[in-house]
Specification:
TPR repeat; TPR-like_helical_dom_sf; TPR_rpt; mainly alpha; DnaJ (Hsp40) homolog, subfamily C, member 7
Length: 143
């Protein structure tokens, strides 16, 4: 689910109780690698290196395949790279599982905005704000 910090703590506790548990050792390594990819993605996003963010999120999604937060970040960066069909596909997959995900609605709107479908984009931004009234990016995009 993408909560690598909590997972890491749990696996450390398992290893305190069973130091030879090879599965817990492997899962602890997976959790630590996810934390590292999250850290790299955050730094890369700040530098506007969206390709690196997509790379990091792809790696983080290997062990944490159900994490919507990672998928949304990947989709947003794909949109910012101009890879709209891929971004929309990722966002649509999330919305199929959770139609109220404000971040995925924002990404759909972002793609439509960049594809010059302003009216549809605004509808998605407004819908994102209905689902998450404090969604700052959707608020800015609406303006």
């Amino acid at each position: 689910l993408g909560n690598a910090m909590a997972a890491s703590r749990c696996f450390q506790k398992v290893l305190e109780l069973e130091p030879d548990n090879s599965q817990a050792q492997q899962e602890l390594k997976n959790a630590e690698s996810i934390l590292e990819f999250e850290r790299l993605a955050e730094i890369s996003f700040e530098k506007r290196d969206f390709r690196m963010v997509v790379f990091c999120m792809d790696r983080a999604l290997e062990p944490a395949s159900a994490c919507h937060r990672f998928k949304v970040l990947k989709a947003e960066c794909l949109a910012l790279l101009g890879r709209y069909p891929e971004a929309q596909s990722v966002a649509s997959d999330i919305l199929r599982m959770d139609s109220t995900n404000g971040d995925a609605l924002y990404v759909r709107g972002l793609c439509l905005y960049y594809e010059d479908c302003i009216d549809k984009a605004v509808q998605f931004f407004v819908q994102a704000l209905r689902m998450a009234p404090d969604h700052e990016k959707a608020r800015l995009a609406c303006r």
